[in-house]
From TrEMBL:
GO MF, any single term: transferase activity
Positions of the GST C-terminal domain: 85-229
Source species: Oleiphilus messinensis
Positions of the GST N-terminal domain: 3-80
Pfam families: GST_N_3
Protein name according to UniProt: Glutathione S-transferase
Entries under SUPFAM superfamilies matching the protein: GST C-terminal domain-like, Thioredoxin-like
Keyword terms of this UniProt record: Transferase
Length: 229
């Protein structure tokens, strides 16, 4: 059975990558529309929230990566994103929240702190715009991201403390993978996809810290599985 599926995305958003990997996990074919550069102004028209990811599927429009994942499990249950076992499902949802609400801010910090990563953001944001807008765009984007980090709390910590805490998080994930090599249950779930999507975006764009992701063998194996989706 064929499906008409469009993923509206910001190319380097870990939440959009989470949805893309969820679709591939279920073997669903889809097309993407990237809202880089001038096209970004159209995001506000996609939903009341005004953010991506947004998924158009079977004549329905769904916004927010978690709502999309739950909808996919309800309508295309094989293979499940959320384990059928209630205890394992609770674990998966906790890991998903951890990735979306905490781990994401480390990704933002490393992106705004690394010139190479910020160049990627500026390049995508200025796609189709005059070259002279780049300097202003970089200033505005960096300021906005730093303000968000301060409001969240991470931006009030020193860079060394942030790095140390991030490494402790990686150590905790490594320990959590001891039992089954997966974060919740005995198969890949939304827990692995959510955590993996955040960390793989750090790996893709964020300077020296990326090497730390691959020093822990169980975590490295998990990231390879998620990346292969």
């Amino acid at each position: 059975m064929s499906h008409d599926i469009t993923l509206h995305q910001w190319e380097i958003s870990p939440f959009c990558q989470k949805v893309a990997r969820s679709l591939r996990h279920k073997g669903l074919n889809y097309r993407t529309i990237d809202y880089n550069g001038l096209r970004g102004a159209k995001v506000m028209r996609l939903s009341k929230v005004g953010k991506v990811p947004v998924l158009d599927i079977d004549e329905q429009r769904i916004q927010d990566s978690t709502r999309i994942a739950r909808w996919l499990d309800e309508h295309y249950p094989e293979p499940l994103l959320y384990p059928a076992d209630t205890s394992q499902r609770a674990q998966a949802e906790l890991w998903e929240d951890f990735a979306d609400e905490l781990l994401y801010w480390y990704e933002v910090h490393f992106r705004v702190s690394d010139p190479e990563a910020m160049k990627i953001v500026v390049d995508l944001s200025c796609e189709g715009r005059p070259a002279f807008e780049r300097v202003g765009a970089k200033t505005v984007l960096a300021f906005g991201l730093r303000q968000q980090l301060k409001f969240q709390g991470l931006g009030k910590m020193s860079p060394n403390d942030i790095r140390d805490e991030f490494l402790r998080i990686l150590d905790r994930i490594e320990i959590a993978l001891e039992a089954t090599s997966w974060l919740a249950g005995d198969a890949m779930s939304i827990a692995d996809i959510s955590v993996g999507s955040q960390l793989l975006e750090i790996d893709r764009t964020s300077g020296p810290i990326r090497s730390e992701l691959w020093k822990r063998p169980r975590l490295a194996a998990l990231l390879k599985e998620v990346k292969a989706l």
